[in-house]
Design a protein that fits this description.
Elements (H helix, E strand, L loop, with lengths): L16 E6 L5 E6 L3 E7 L5 E8 L4 E6 L5 E6 L4 E7 L2 E8 L6 E6 L5 E6 L3 E6 L4 E8 L4 E6 L5 E5 L3 E5 L5 E6 L4 E6 L6 E5 L3 E5 L5 E6 L5 E6 L5 E6 L4 E5 L5 E5 L4 E9 L2 E6 L5 E4 L5 E4 L7 E7 L2 E6 L3 E6 L4 E6 L4 E7 L2 E6 L3 E6 L6 E7 L6 E5 L2 E5 L4 E6 L5 E6 L5 E7 L2 E6 L3 E5 L4 E6 L4 E7 L2 E6 L4 E5 L12 E4 L6 E9 L2 E8 L3 E8 L10 E6 L4 E6 L5 E5 L4 E9 L2 E10 L9 E2 L4
Parallel strand pairs: 32-57
Antiparallel strand pairs: 1-2, 2-3, 3-4, 5-6, 6-7, 7-8, 9-10, 10-11, 11-12, 13-14, 14-15, 15-16, 17-18, 18-19, 19-20, 21-22, 22-23, 23-24, 25-26, 26-27, 27-28, 29-30, 30-31, 31-32, 33-34, 34-35, 35-36, 37-38, 38-39, 39-40, 41-42, 42-43, 43-44, 45-46, 46-47, 47-48, 49-50, 50-51, 51-52, 53-54, ...
Length: about 625
């Protein structure tokens, strides 16, 4: 297994912050990150933070939580372990590792005794552990899909929630007490300080408050997009909710009426936590954000903006990167880079129509950028109402695939939405143009093909699909089930699925992105994975399917691969969260597939790497 090896200029994290937790005495904040680290900070009286200590996992860290004893910490990671730490003399000491998990650990929660804890993971299981001895006490519950979060009450009650819409309640002795189901995924849950009320965050934008029998006490709609994170104030009088619309809404309890709205361009609402009269939140900066929970306002600004690359757009003679900082970076063939646009939200996707570039943002905007190639300016905005992880061009429209599963067609002249269609039951992670049709890959495990409003499934996976690519009549999809599927599309209109589908294996983590280069019936299939590697397969559709296709690793990044795109000239570009961009040029030499590899960008992470031309 490759280990994360990021160079961190300055203090703080080098990738987005995934989790925040406040110690029971209120003195310390702990954060986890995609950079594979956890950090402990002093929470100063003025709301600023001072970095104290760092711990490391070998993969990204999904969550962490302080024990009731204040100096003890548990962190759950995509390396399938939970690490137990003790803060001593301003240093983190690793005291145990719980390593018998079979999949990524999404969330951890301590029981009130400060010794036992519950962990939940992508395999749907909730397991109980003795943190002192490292002993697995057993599997205590299970979900039919990913288990997303666990929360324990002051009285020792345990709640787990998942993508199957289930809420499962267990007693302090791990005995099952109650179960309820909603008709959408649930990503967050939190107990009120009295231990009698459980709040859940739903993907349909609702917040439910439930009693100990999981009966509804109150519910309200807080967002047009998914609600993600929840934290109660110490008195139980307020409830802070983070949503994928990008803000934090503070609600009064029990009325659930809106009390305060908190926003910041670097805010990522995957995790939030109350700290007395402050709210701590993760974000796209090097440090957590600190808000005044009473009157609003930012006390801690999130540190430096991070430039993790999320989107790649090869252009004639140059390459565009869309980043976590909201910048569009332009690199020429020598690797010289400039920042040519600076938006108010992280950029998740890019597309182009002639000289016009479009950027899809985490804040739910589709921004039109026009002007010279080295000086783009924002001159139009379309509102999608949810994060925009994918963009494409079809029928004179820029098409946005949203977190809510919608396809939205914006007229490129005035950026108004002229077509809106609920195409999938999950987030549309990727779009690919197929002539007059469009392929869409979704977290509902399917790839669909068709017009904006008339679509049919063509590929299915055993887990969510991250990416789809197309080349000369072939289509490929990349999935969290660690496979790539490639098929020939003979007819995109009749609704029948392809009959010749090749399944490619090799990665030992989720496959994040895929690209194709075709020479007639022969394909070079490139894929980037969370295992830091870029793979290539040589697939010939003129030959019968064999069921086994050898792969080669053509590059290893120092972090997970974040984006991959094939250019019209046959080159393939891949970017990693370590800030590097690599170009691959595949060719057939005799009967063998050869790949030439060149690093074109050494790092895009540091703000000193690029000259800012214009903030559009």
């Amino acid at each position: 297994m490759e280990n994360i090896n990021l160079i961190t200029p300055g203090t703080g994290h080098s990738a987005p912050i995934t989790g925040v937790s406040v110690s029971t005495d209120g003195r310390h904040v702990a954060t986890s990150s995609y950079d594979g680290t956890i950090k402990v900070w002093n929470l100063n009286g003025d709301g600023t933070l001072t970095e104290l200590a760092t711990g490391r996992h070998t993969r990204l860290v999904n969550s962490l939580t302080w024990a009731p004893t204040a100096s003890r910490l548990a962190s759950g990671s995509a390396d399938k372990t939970v690490a137990i730490w003790t803060l001593l003399d301003n240093r983190l000491q690793l005291t145990n590792v719980l390593s018998r998990h079979t999949d990524d650990v999404n969330s951890v929660a301590w029981l009130p005794d400060g010794r036992h804890l519950v962990c939940v993971s992508e395999d749907g299981k909730a397991t109980a552990w003795d943190a002192d001895t490292g002993r697995l006490l057993g599997e205590i519950s299970g979900h039919r899909a990913h288990c997303m979060m666990v929360a324990t009450s002051p009285t020792g009650h345990i709640a787990t929630v998942g993508e199957d819409g289930q809420v499962i309640l267990l007693g302090p002795d791990f005995a099952p007490l109650a179960t309820t189901v909603v008709d959408c995924s649930i990503e967050g849950c939190a107990w009120a300080p009295d231990g009698k009320r459980l709040a859940i965050a739903r993907d349909d934008g609702r917040i439910d408050v439930l009693d100990l029998d999981l009966q509804m006490i109150a519910t309200t709609k807080v967002s047009g997009s998914a609600a993600r994170s929840i934290s109660w104030s110490a008195t139980g009088e307020h409830l802070a909710v983070g949503s994928y619309e990008g803000g934090i809404r503070v609600l009064d309890s029990p009325s659930l009426e809106s009390h305060l709205q908190l926003n910041h361009r670097a805010l990522w609402t995957r995790s939030i936590a109350y700290a007395a009269d402050r709210i701590i939140a993760g974000g796209f900066g090097s440090r957590p954000l600190v808000f005044d929970a009473e009157v609003g306002g930012v006390l801690g600004d999130g540190g430096r903006q991070l430039r993790g690359p999320n989107a790649l757009l090869p252009r004639a003679g140059h390459l565009l990167l869309g980043t976590d900082s909201g910048e569009v970076l332009r690199y020429d063939e020598t690797g010289t880079g400039v920042s040519i646009a600076d938006l108010d939200s992280p950029i998740l996707s890019l597309a182009a129509d002639g000289d016009t570039v479009f950027a899809g943002t985490y804040g739910g905007e589709v921004v039109r950028l026009t002007g010279p190639a080295d000086d783009l300016r924002a001159d139009g905005v379309g509102l999608a109402g949810a994060p925009v992880p994918s963009l494409s061009i079809l029928d004179g429209r820029v098409v946005a695939g949203t977190y809510n599963g919608e396809l939205i067609g914006f007229d490129t002249d005035d950026m108004t939405p002229s077509v809106r269609h609920q195409a999938h039951d999950g987030s549309i992670k990727s779009l690919a143009r197929l002539g007059k049709y469009l392929a869409a890959a979704s977290t509902d495990r399917t790839v669909s093909v068709g017009t904006l409003t008339k679509r049919h499934p063509v590929l299915q996976h055993g887990n969510l699909i991250n990416d789809v690519a197309h080349s000369d009549g072939f289509i490929a999809s990349a999935s969290r089930d660690r496979t790539v599927r490639v098929a020939r599309l003979t007819d995109s209109t009749d609704g029948s699925p392809p009959t010749d589908v090749r399944v490619l294996t090799g990665p030992d983590e989720s496959v994040k992105c895929v690209g194709l280069v075709a020479w007639g019936d022969r394909l070079a299939v490139f894929a980037g994975s969370y295992d830091f590697r870029v793979y290539v397969w040589d697939v010939n559709f003129a030959e019968p399917a064999t069921g086994r296709y050898p792969h080669r690793v053509v590059h290893v990044f120092d972090q997970a691969v974040s984006a991959l795109s094939a250019a019209p000239d046959g080159a393939v570009y891949a970017a990693g969260w370590d800030g590097r961009v690599v170009r691959f040029i595949p060719r057939i030499a005799g009967d063998r597939l050869e790949v030439d590899t060149t690093t074109v960008v050494e790092t895009c992470l540091s703000p000193t790497d690029s000259t800012v031309v214009n903030h559009g």
